[in-house]
Structures are given as structure tokens and as C-alpha cells.
Amino acid sequence: MARLLPAVGLALLAGASAFAPSPSRAPPPSRLQARQNRAGDRVGAGVGALLSFGLLAAPIITPAPAFAGADTGASTAASAKITTGGASTLQSGRTIAITRGVNLDRSDFKGQNLKGVAFQQSIVRDTDFRGANLYGASFFDATVDGSDFEGADMSLCNVEMAQFNRANLKNAIMREMYVSGATLFEGVKDIEGSDWSETQLRKDQQKYLCNHPTAKGTNPTTGVDTRESLMCLD
User: Fold this and answer.
1) Is this model's pTM higher than 0.70 or not?
2) What digits encode the pLDDT tens for the residues 51-79?
3) Could you give the CA distance from residue 234 to residue 215 in angstroms, rounded to a whole number?
């Protein structure tokens, strides 16, 4: 009898350990919990896909150009505007539409800072640009017949396909302008004291300007001789 007691005790201990919960394993989830977990996984995956698609499909938004002060002209000519009816520039507080095709005849821009302004394809006849800062402005395919550019700085202007009939270019700075084969200076009124340095003119236009009766003098700002800047052969 004494021999059987240890054996019985061991058996009881083994049975008790079999029914005790294991600390290392959590009880299996119920069917409801399993369905909820699977639904949560599907929702999370759907949201992730939508977010990924939104990031890929979203348009790239560039910030609007900042307006410069009146003393800096236009640093980005695309957003520009001048109160007289259409030239585009970055002058602060001005909100007129772009100039393309706008009639600006007889406007007064005397002494104004029009740096980078775009007058492309506009009609700008008999307009006063005397002493204006037109550095980098565009007169692409514009008509500037009879306009007065005396003393204006037109360096790096785009004058491709522009017409300068009756225009006054006296003492104007015309350095490094963009000129195409269709740009016409025939009929220009005055080029005395103008500086054409580094502007590549068509041969016939260069010859016309060199033979112009006012092709003489020295630019009062740059000190460059007009005929030398035109590379006249004399």
C-alpha cells in the first residue's frame, strides 16, 4: 500500500498539469473575432491602395509666381499686368490680362520700369517708351510703328517679327536683342546714338541701318559708337 501512494501522487500531478492553461499560448480567437480581423485587414488594404493611387494620380501643383515690387520689373513675365489695358508684367497690385493681341496704341509708358514685360503680338503704335526700362521685354510679332523709344534700355529684348516703321530709336540701348529674319527696321525714324552691340542683324537690315542718315553719334549711357555697334564697313 505504501508503494502505491507515490505512484498515485505522480498521476494526480500529471493530470492537473494537463488541465492548467499554458502561459505561452493565447487562446484561439472566436469565429466572430476572426471575421472582424479579416474585415479590418481588407479595409486597411483598401485605404492603403486609395492613398497610393491618390499620391500617384494627384497633379503636381507649382506655386504661383510672387509679385515683385515696382522697382524690380517682371521676373516672370507670364503673370503680368499693366493698368493701361494689357501688357503683362509683375508690377505689384496690377491685375489686367495678358497683352496677346491687345491694342495699346498711343499709350504712355514714359520712364516706367517695364523689365520683362510681354507685348507679344500686340499693336503698340505711337506709344511713348522714352527712358523706359525694357530690359528683357518681348515685342514678338508686335507692331510698334511710330513709337518713341528714345533713351530706352531694350537690352535682351525679343523683337522677332516686329515692325519698327517710323519708330524713334535715338540713344536707345539695343544690345543683344533677339532678331529674326522677319524683323523689319525699314522706315525707322531715328537711330542716332543707339547701341546695337552683340545684336545679330540680317545682312540687308544691317546695310539699311548703316546707310540710314541718322546712323551716327555715341550712346550717352554706354559710350559706344553707333556705327561701330552696327559693324558698318566704313
Assistant:
1) no
2) 444 433 444 333 333 223 344 444 333 33
3) 12
Cβ 226 vs Cβ 196: under 8 Å: yes
Residue 34 to residue 176: CA distance in whole angstroms: 77
Contact 223, 195 (CB under 8 A): no
- CA geometry: angle 54, 58, 53, nearest 5 deg: 25
Q: What is the DSSP string of 136-156?
A: T-B-TT-B-TT-B-TT-B-TT
Helix (H) / strand (E) element for 48: namely: helix 31-57
Three cell numbers, residue 218: 555715341
pLDDT digits (tens, 9 = 90+) for 124-160: 999 999 999 999 999 999 999 999 999 999 999 999 9
C-beta separation of 171 from 191 below 8 A: no
Q: Rounded to 10 degrees, what is the CA torsion of 222, 227, 232, 234?
A: -130
Q: How far, in Å, CA of 91 to CA of 63, rounded? A: 18
| Main-chain dihedrals φ then ψ at residue 51, nearest 5 degrees | -65, -40
